[in-house]
């Protein structure tokens, strides 16, 4: 079954309300991911750090800047890639 934008929104909603493990106790915000669902490229990181938790976005701060430089070197922009983490909080 193909993934649709509605599926992604439902997953994000579930992530924001998740309390299934102790990580929810220390997070400020969950980080479900961002970018176009139909992207040709999907990047998956390990888990949100301090800056990601504060901004609720994957790969921000120094890691995000480095990622954007890497993407640029292969002809991609951040807005063209779906970026998420294995762990969401």
What does this 3D model show about the protein?
This protein is α+β, with helices and mostly antiparallel strands and 89 residues long. The chain has one domain: 3-Layer(aba) Sandwich (Uracil-DNA Glycosylase, subunit E). 36% of the residues lie in helices and 11% in strands. A two-stranded parallel sheet has the order 1-2. It is flat. It starts with a helix and ends with a strand.
Output the keywords:
89 residues, Uracil-DNA Glycosylase, subunit E, two-stranded parallel ribbon, alpha+beta, 36% helix
Topology:
Layout lengths: L4 H13 L23 E5 L4 H6 L5 H13 L7 E5 L4
Parallel strand pairs: 1-2
CATH class term? Alpha Beta
CATH H-level superfamily: Uracil-DNA glycosylase-like domain
Task: Give the N-terminus to C-terminus distance in angstroms.
Answer: 27 Å
Q: If you consult CATH, what is the topology?
A: Uracil-DNA Glycosylase, subunit E
The number of helices is 3
Helix content: 25-40%
Level-2 CATH architecture: 3-Layer(aba) Sandwich
Averaged pLDDT: 90
- How many beta-strand segments? 2
Summarize the entry for a quick read:
It contains three helices and two strands, in the order αβααβ.
